[in-house]
Amino acid sequence: MNGGLIAAPVPPARAYDLALVDLDGVAYRGHEPIEHASDGLTAARDAGMRLVFVTNNASREPESVADQLSGLGIPTTPGEVMTAAQAAAQLLRSRLESGARVLVVGGAGLRTAVRQAGFEVVESADDEPAAVAQGFAPEVGWTQLAEAAYAIERGAWHVASNLDLSLPTARGFAPGNGSLVGAVRAATGVAPDSAGKPSPTMYHMAVERAGARQALVVGDRLDTDLAGARSGGFVGLHVLTGVSSARDDVLAHPGERPHLIGADLRALHETHPAPELGGDGWWTCREAAARVVDGRLELGRGGSTSGVDPLDQVRAACAAAWAAVDGGDELDASSVPELGPSAV
Fold first, then answer.
1. What 8-state DSSP symbol labels residue 210?
2. Would you tell me how many other CB atoms lie within 10 Å of the CB of residue 310?
3. What percent of the chain has pLDDT over 90?
């Protein structure tokens, strides 16, 4: 698949039959709705696009997630929710026999998924679990992390639902499951296996469940949502409503780059132009222009970006930066300003 930005002359809601939509930072932020999320997703369904909400959050059960989305004006059934807890349980089944003991460190969603996968849930390392399944929950504390460390030191297999270091909330960014997993890893020296994004496992599970022909990944984090899209062979749409910024897009590693960029979920209903390289060395996207000279990003011929669509400027900057880096040049990160609609 193309390693750069691609053109979408037809709005994604009409070009793809399934959207794999992240939750935190895309559909909502904590318990608060994100502007245009409800309207954007409702209109996508009206256009014939099916939705599956794919989340690295393993603390809640699909029924709870569906209820929250429905309460925010996004009617959702539990069958339209795919959680990292479900993916972790599937990963456990790849190595453990049915009935094996699993120490669960996390919330109700993870405990339910592990039980439904045929395992016995235990809470102490003294129960001699074959594995430790670790997922985020607000109530997880030192006692649970210590039990996980004891079990892993005794040979239990460590499976993390995800490795997200941060979690977007209405008040800001809080420590995510990856931060808690890091404490256990620091204590044991054992690196866990992870079922969550950026592994594309959940995406493939969701596509198989839906029987989709062509799926689009929609997310706010480059290191999880969009990296999972790249590794799974899916087109990824980055919406600028959560963790990763437009500047992050420009500086993104090849395996984390989006294919499409939008301000919010209205991007499902917009066409997306692709940047083009001109003979003068400038990458252009409609009226926007960017190039890299001596390792520094330059925006706008003559240094002016007045009247330019901010998203087109992001697209042109991405194309210029990615081409330079992929060609072996070093890009001075200090030359990359904040970009996108929020920077205007």
1. H
2. 18
3. 85
Q: How far apart are CA 230 and CA 226, in angstroms?
A: 6
Fold held by 12-56+198-269: Rossmann fold (3.40.50)
Q: What is the pTM of this model?
A: 0.86
Three-state SS at 311: helix
Annotation says 312 is catalytic: no
Look at residue 343 and tell me whether its pLDDT is greater than 90. Answer: no
Mean pLDDT of the 135-147 span: 95
Q: Where are the domains of the chain?
A: 12-56+198-269, 85-194, 276-339
> Which pLDDT belongs to residue 257?
98
Is 264 assigned a catalytic role? no
What sign results for the dihedral spanned by CA atoms 143, 147, 150, 153?
negative
Per-residue pLDDT tens digits for 25-56: 999 988 889 999 999 999 999 999 999 999 98
23 token code pair = 């939750």
Q: For residue range 173-230, list pLDDT tens digits in order.
A: 899 999 999 999 999 999 999 988 998 989 998 999 899 999 999 999 999 999 999 9
**Which of these CATH numbers, 3.40.640.10, 3.30.930.10, 3.40.50.1000, 3.40.190.10, describes 85-194?**
3.40.50.1000
Q: Which of 17, 24, 127, 329 is catalytic?
A: 24
| 218 in Cβ contact with 237 (< 8 Å) | yes
Q: In a 3-state reduction of DSSP, which class is residue 239?
A: strand
Same fold, 12-56+198-269 and 85-194: yes
Sign of CA dihedral 220, 93, 143, 192: negative
DSSP secondary structure of 37-104: HHHHHHHHHHTT-EEEEEES--SS-HHHHHHHHHHTT----GGGEEEHHHHHHHHHHTTSPTT-EEEE
CA distance 157 to 335: 44
Residue among 22, 223, 248, 312 flagged as catalytic: 22
**Residue 261 pLDDT level (bands cut at 50, 70, 90):** very high
